[in-house]
Amino acid sequence: MMGLGFIWMLLFWVGIILLAVWLIAVLFPASPPSSGNRSNTRASTREILDQRYAQGELSREQYEEMRQLLKQ
User: Fold this and answer.
1) Which burial class, exposed, middle or buried, applies to 32 when counting CB atoms under 10 A from its CB (0-12, 13-18, 19+)?
2) C-beta of residue 27 within 8 angstroms of C-beta of residue 51
3) What's the helix, strand, coil split of the chain in %, to 5?
4) pLDDT of residue 21
5) Torsion angles phi and psi, residue 11, rounded to 5
6) Three-state DSSP state, 32
7) Residue 47 pLDDT > 70
């Protein structure tokens, strides 16, 4: 009889823990994993560089130097 009560108590706490994990997963969904594609990263980096140059944040020399670094 004592063993049966222990099993029910164990199942109860396992259920509570699983419910808590599920609730956390629903409330805070994981962000999608990045594809890891370097060409996409380089394209977006190049776009940022172009925008900074267009806004006048970079001189022509700085722009050309950074552009060469991105090609490597």
Assistant:
1) exposed
2) no
3) 75, 0, 25
4) 96
5) -65, -40
6) coil
7) yes
